[in-house]
Amino acid sequence: MSDHQRRLPEASPNLDASTDHDQDSPAPPRSLPSRDGDDVVSKLSLRESCSPKLKKELGLDMSRIFPYRNNRKPSAEVDYAPGNNYKFTMMMLVDFERQVPGLETRSYLNLMDWGMHNNVIAIGVGKRLWFARIDREKTPPHVGPSYGDDEFVNSVSWSPEGDDALAVGLKNSQVHLLDPITSQKIRTFGSCGVGSLAWNGRVLTTGTLDGHIVNYDVRVGTKVSRLLESHQGAICGLKWSASGQLLASGGSDNVVHVWDGRVPTRWLHKLEEHNAAVRAVAWNPLKRHLLASGGGEGDHYIRLWDASSGTPHENASVDTGSEVCGLFWSKDHVDTLVSTHGFGGSLSVRDNRLILWRSPMMFKIDEMYIESNDDVPAPPPRTSFFSAQSPEGYNVAIAGDNKKLQLVHAFTPPPPEPAAKPPFSTYNRPNHYTLR
Questions:
Q1: Residues with Cβ < 8 Å from 420, sequence gap 6 or more?
Q2: Count of alpha carbons within 13 Å of 129, Cβ hemisphere only?
Q3: CA 324 to CA 328: how far, in whole Å?
């Protein structure tokens, strides 16, 4: 009897139903395929009955039968940090835009600030002040007081104390403390040629273009202290830490100084790693001694420092390829910051962009280019970029050579915490038994 005429053995109860046959009916003929492919039965009919080894020899690996290429665009939320459950959201422009006619992109100045309590952005535009309220009603901007023919606004900074006072540093005269509603001067301070301002409670710190740092008590208008041995050039950036104890100053002499506000006679640390002027300095609000600094044209580096020891963080520097104009830390996520950039300095790097970073390895999460004015040749002039962070910390305001004020949603708010359960919400009342 040939192999094709043999009967199959009687099916056992635990065999699959597909192998059950009538005991009296002849079994269907079977033929095994050769490895050369002769008399190969259809792959679809054999894929359920073949062993894994035979499937592999016949090319029936199910994971390769239907190849798939993922061509869809990535989601707007991507977890860029291995081991981190927080999902970063890509930066995007907010539906807000205002024309700022006459804005001059002058380097080493700080011409923009965002009010912490009044939600108003102030910009120094030549000889006058320009204000824009950020609200849903899209209130039109208005122009503030104007200064003399030989005077220019060099820096602006809102008071953090809730009185909505605005400090204005002028090029050739003093610092004015203004009431923006009435445009009246509240105080006048003696510093001349102020390019940067920083608040520490009721103390206003001024950085002059000749390298001096002076603290003023705005309540009485008197000088509190003068920081000695500061910089050999213009003071480009000033920032107090969240604790109010440490001050960082960046200068056109390529140096960053860290000062102890309680002992203001001499700097604590002198940081000399940058090769260009330093305008961007920022303290991490969640890590007390973590300082970020950004170099200007000719340096392009962002560096992270341990302010307690004055040493750079290991592997925590990155060449961004363009002038670093501003640095802003997230107020909710300790290792996330945004940098704003002006002049690219090379044909391979465009001007006016924002980069979202994950520290301390300075991993680039996202990058956004901002429309620039194609009518302005580069270089020169240099297309510096002005920026400010919103009070809640999620948005960044930007303005450059395109003469526009725009808002960028840079940081994602943290996910809401689950609602707290009321006390004893999971307590099960015991059954009541009748005592006998």
A1: none
A2: 26
A3: 11
